[in-house]
Amino acid sequence: MTQLQRPFNFSAGPAALPEEVLQTAAAEMLDWHGSGLGVMEMSHRGAEFIAIYEKAERDLRTLLAVPSDYRILFMQGGGIGENAIVPLNLSRGAAVDFVLTGSWSQKSHKEAGKYAHSQIAASAEASGFTAIPDPATWQVNQKAAYLHICSNETIHGVEFQELPDLKALGADIPLVIDCSSHIASRTIDWSRVGLAFAGAQKNLGPAGLTIVIVREDLIGHALPICPSAFNYELVAKNDSMYNTPPTWGIYVAGLVFDWVLRQQEGSLTGLAAIEARNIRQASRLYDFLDASSFYQNRVQPAARSRMNIPFFLTDESRNAEFLAGAKARGLLQLKGHKSVGGMRASLYNAMSDAGVEALIAYLQEFEKTSA
Amino acid sequence: MTQLQRPFNFSAGPAALPEEVLQTAAAEMLDWHGSGLGVMEMSHRGAEFIAIYEKAERDLRTLLAVPSDYRILFMQGGGIGENAIVPLNLSRGAAVDFVLTGSWSQKSHKEAGKYAHSQIAASAEASGFTAIPDPATWQVNQKAAYLHICSNETIHGVEFQELPDLKALGADIPLVIDCSSHIASRTIDWSRVGLAFAGAQKNLGPAGLTIVIVREDLIGHALPICPSAFNYELVAKNDSMYNTPPTWGIYVAGLVFDWVLRQQEGSLTGLAAIEARNIRQASRLYDFLDASSFYQNRVQPAARSRMNIPFFLTDESRNAEFLAGAKARGLLQLKGHKSVGGMRASLYNAMSDAGVEALIAYLQEFEKTSA
């Protein structure tokens, strides 16, 4: 199949997938590996789908170096679903702590209040969510069931460069991370994490798949009102097949895991290669924005996301013109989230260096037209 | 693309899709309608996906003749998720009623007990779930928040040929139907239904999409503990985009809706054509089974499902041999559910007459080898 250059897709999610993954998914649509069945047509309990599921689980475990005492669950409901599902499973009648660094941690904090006393250990709201509060200043409740952070705020473009060490802060409680928008873009220090969850529709592809990685000792304590479909114990005991899992999403995410593991950058492979590429691409764009007086990113450098880069034109009356010109040049889905405004370039794993260079070339070109 | 004859797929779900739908999904994988984006790569809030969503919603409304005072919601969590989500949204602190006709209504009854006093208005358990209790004998609680039935029991192969008229039974309460495994195979009498839900992975295709069709006056009464992602009011107000919907599933289901609307059988079109085809295929197989002393279906004729046809060999020691021979002839996924045993042929909308004839030819052939 010949294919013209595809446009560059900067969507914050659902987002660009590697072209190779899409081609494989298309080629196997009517017949997966000689089975005569398309993946969407397979019983989730049949040998063919079990093979797909087991490879996806194994590859994700390898990719993120998930320890053997953590379970990987393939679920439904997305990040907003998990905002309820986490406290339903982990709160055990105790209080829960949150650090607010943007829209997503705010939403999680609010939803948890339905099931537990939901407290704020620290908040960056006063900064307009352009910073991450220094962990040394957090007011951590040592009796909380867990402390929740959003390790990458998709809307505000704020990312934890290092996960907090709650033990060092004097609190021996599990850390919960919502890593939806940067999962599989960098390593996770599991010694600091009790549970990680991620909607798949950013870095892994298909909306409707939610990945939960949870330490085994945190499983089995759900509140009686937790719906069975979202009870980690039932999901874990049934290898994510207590109910019919989102089979197509698991398949496509599995293709993405396989693709990430095969990436190379110089002597680096897999996640290390992806991370080096992400750092290079994000630095290139931030450096350009910082050197310009025409564009602006407002996030403190230490808190800037590698994945989601919001920026503003100095003259915001030209936003529509900017977006139309971008689209005409094959630079798609650059509009910022409505709650923040401006622009946002999401540089997920599937973004190429060429895409970032094409964006910067357009940023330069557009700035010149205003001279 | 040339394609050899595909095998015939009798899976109970996830299940066969029309070949035309799979071909379209493959062809559009990298570029939907010239947008330069694959469907999985589109922001759910962009013009491209909104067009896909709106056509799917419109076509489903046409297909099932859904009245204007019913909302169609595209959700996640499947039938097992809805077993909790329905009482979380509709029970309002009142009791809820169930009619037990098989495994699925049993599961629904049990799960609802977490949120409401969950009662049994009638049960066919004594018959081994081979019949549907006469509605005239149901003990309907007139003060229940609703009465729930599974209008087609996938595992036991039992189907309501007519929906009960609760008003005629003296109870002016909403009827809830779990129609997961026969949605879009026959008409629904909405005058008798308050809410219908269906996991999409039987007749519509992609696992991970759940369709809820609910009368507007039943929306807005969720219990405070209902997770926001599964609160019908929030989902409805946000046109199924309170959280990121399962975009690929909506797209594929939309292709299926479009395919159903274009089906023809003689002078019949759309759902009427599909229904005529389903009746013809199911009758052909039941007639064959009934005429045989080698095979047996145990469901009372009046309660037999057009979609899921469980059957048994008289000599069950030959089950493995039967299944191996079937697979060798391209007749796939005929093994019965583990809780019932034996075989099960699911004849969903995508099944062709040729598939049913091929199955019957094999049934005849296999019987002869035992003479």
From TrEMBL, chains A, B:
Chain sites annotated for binding pyridoxal 5'-phosphate: 104, 154, 178, 201, 243-244
SUPFAM superfamilies membership: PLP-dependent transferases (SSF53383)
Cofactor: pyridoxal 5'-phosphate
One GO term describing the cellular component: cytoplasm
Protein name: Phosphoserine aminotransferase
Pfam families tied to this protein: Aminotran_5 (PF00266)
Subunit structure: Homodimer.
Function recorded in the entry: Catalyzes the reversible conversion of 3-phosphohydroxypyruvate to phosphoserine and of 3-hydroxy-2-oxo-4-phosphonooxybutanoate to phosphohydroxythreonine.
HAMAP family, per database record: SerC_aminotrans_5
Residues the record lists as N6-(pyridoxal phosphate)lysine modifications: 202
Entry's cofactor comment: Binds 1 pyridoxal phosphate per subunit.
Gene Ontology MF: a single term: O-phospho-L-serine:2-oxoglutarate aminotransferase activity
Binding site for L-glutamate: 45
Pathway membership: Cofactor biosynthesis; pyridoxine 5'-phosphate biosynthesis; pyridoxine 5'-phosphate from D-erythrose 4-phosphate: step 3/5; Amino-acid biosynthesis; L-serine biosynthesis; L-serine from 3-phospho-D-glycerate: step 2/3
Enzyme Commission number(s) of this protein: 2.6.1.52
Domain of life per record: Bacteria
Name of the gene: serC
Catalytic activity: 4-(phosphooxy)-L-threonine + 2-oxoglutarate = (R)-3-hydroxy-2-oxo-4-phosphooxybutanoate + L-glutamate; O-phospho-L-serine + 2-oxoglutarate = 3-phosphooxypyruvate + L-glutamate
